[in-house]
């Protein structure tokens, strides 16, 4: 179901999509959250105790499935995030 507006339900759907995308790509994360600002959403999670924050425009979510939004936000940094799997 495509996102038609940014509300609590859709923020939860987005959060779940980010959670699933990180798990599917073997990114070792903790404390995942999605924070709503005036015009942006911020994805927050930790990898090996290091905070990771990705901001993106709310309006870019409208008309898209949550899984597509999650992929679009994380995919550009996926190789970097997956490299934490090899660090001790």
What is the residue-mean pLDDT, rounded to a whole number?
92
Low-confidence stretches: none
Largest sheet: 3 strands, antiparallel
Kindly provide the radius of gyration, computed on alpha-carbon positions and rounded to a whole number of angstroms: 13 Å
Q: What is the tally of beta strands?
A: 3
Instruction: Record the strand order, biggest sheet.
Output: 1-2-3
User: What characteristic shape results from the CA principal axes?
Assistant: globular
Helix content: 25-40%
Q: Whole-Å distance between the termini?
A: 40 Å
Tell me the count of domains: 1
Structural class: alpha+beta
The succession of helices and strands, N to C, reads HEEEHH
Beta content? 25-35%
Number of helices: 3
Report on the structure:
The protein is α+β, with helices and mostly antiparallel strands and 88 residues long. The chain has one domain. The chain is built from three helices and three strands. The protein has helices at residues 8-24, 66-74, 78-82; strands at 30-36, 40-47, 50-57. A three-stranded antiparallel β-sheet has the order 1-2-3, with helices on one face. Helix 1 packs across helix 2 (66-74). It is globular, with a radius of gyration of 13 Å. It starts with 7 loop residues before the first helix and ends in a 6-residue tail after the last helix. 19% of the residues are buried. The mean pLDDT is 92.
């Amino acid at each position: 179901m495509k996102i038609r507006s940014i509300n609590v339900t859709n923020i939860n759907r987005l959060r779940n999509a980010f959670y699933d995308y990180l798990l599917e790509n073997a990114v070792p994360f903790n404390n995942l959250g999605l924070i709503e600002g005036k015009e942006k959403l911020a994805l927050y999670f930790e990898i090996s105790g290091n905070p990771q924050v990705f901001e993106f425009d709310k309006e870019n979510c409208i008309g898209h499935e949550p899984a597509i939004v999650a992929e679009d936000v994380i995919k550009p940094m996926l190789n970097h995030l997956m490299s934490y799997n090899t660090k001790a």
